[in-house]
Amino acid sequence: MPRSHKEAHRTDSIGWLRAAVLGANDGIVSTASLIIGVAAADAAQSAVLVAGVAGLVAGAMSMAAGEYVSVSSQADTEQADLARERLELATDGPRETAELAGIYVQRGLDAALAQQVAVQLMAKDALGAHARDELGISETVSARPLQAALASAAAFTVGAAAPLATAWLAPAASVAWVVGAASLVFLVVLGALSARTGGASITRGIVRVTFWGALAMALTAGVGRVFGVAA
User: Fold this and answer.
1) How far apart are CA 214 and CA 200, in angstroms?
2) What's the per-residue H, E or C state across 82-123?
3) In a domain, 138, yes or no
4) Which of 6, 129, 166, 203 has the fewest CB atoms in 10 Å of its CB?
């Protein structure tokens, strides 16, 4: 008798990976851009560091709150759909069985086999079968607000700490240039790691992350330079 085994799939990490990549990327880009913009305005290094720390704290809290609220909204929608499905199963079981069988027919099963599969799956876990095959809700991709919030906040903090530490160690006269160059390296590493974890093209992941990061830092450097000169 063959032994069953659980395969590891990359989609198992989709919940925390999306939030972590978004948080780390935003931490690097927003904090580096803030530091570069303030430094380009000829501010003192102490002011640059204060701005960076403030950006790190505010950004981490904003990411956590934003992820929690948005993913909570998704979770509320999922729960509302499940409640409706639970009611339909309790009040009109035969219709729900036919509906599930119709889904399987659309996926390639003949009508008789689709009916048999629907009956057997619903006998074991009717709500689970409809949640998965009708609503597209599964344990792997279901919304987890607290997990998303913590992953985003932690990743943002780690990402933001990198350019902030660089600004603290860099010579005062070249903070903007050093932070910009180092942040591009950080983004390359993030793009490669996220692509490798997700099983995507590493080159595409690096280009996708670094392009927008470089653009953001260039624009904020320009803004800082304009207002610094104007002052």
Assistant:
1) 22
2) HHHHHHHHHHCHHHHHHHHHHHHHHCCCCHHHHHHHHHHHHH
3) yes
4) 6
